[in-house]
Amino acid sequence: MEDLLGGMQFHGQMVKMGFHRNAHVGSGLIDLYSKCGGHMLDSRKVFQDIPHPDLVLWNTMISGYSLNDEFSEEALLCFKEMQQAGNLPDDCSFVCVLSASAKMSSPSQGKQIHSLVIKSDITSNRVSINNALVAMYSKCGNLEDARRLF
């Protein structure tokens, strides 16, 4: 709780100094709020204050939603919103959104994301994506697809 209070004080200082619209500062604040008690409304406010969010900021927001089980659906919505804003998902985006799908036990959603992974032809950090796919299929009860990826 002390970390959250200190973070909120830091956030206040950043607002006073005019740095609250900086993507790097915003990413740290989103991470803080999402990891310290799942304050996702505060995370979203920080995100919305940044005029042109980059991929790192989108991924931080998706990750925050994914970390908090009750916000798994919002992770998927944020992932779609990110793409509609013209940002292509990277390995981090896929790992986070696959984690959210697994928590929702949504095999159909997971399969849709798996097809996006295949279409995107991501070559970097493929092991992390495959691990997330195996975990998602396993948690959704689809052991056959999980074994095939393993």
UniProtKB/TrEMBL annotation:
InterPro entries: PPR_At4g14850-like_plant, PPR_rpt, TPR-like_helical_dom_sf. PPR repeats lie at residues 54-89. One of its GO terms (molecular function) is RNA binding. The lineage of its organism: Eukaryota, Viridiplantae, Streptophyta, Embryophyta, Tracheophyta. The keyword Repeat applies. Keywords: Repeat. NCBIfam families: PPR. Gene3D superfamilies: Tetratricopeptide repeat domain (1.25.40.10). It holds the Pfam family PPR_2. It comes from the Eukaryota. GO terms for biological process: RNA modification. PANTHER family: OS07G0578800 PROTEIN-RELATED, OS08G0340900 PROTEIN. This is Pentatricopeptide repeat-containing protein.
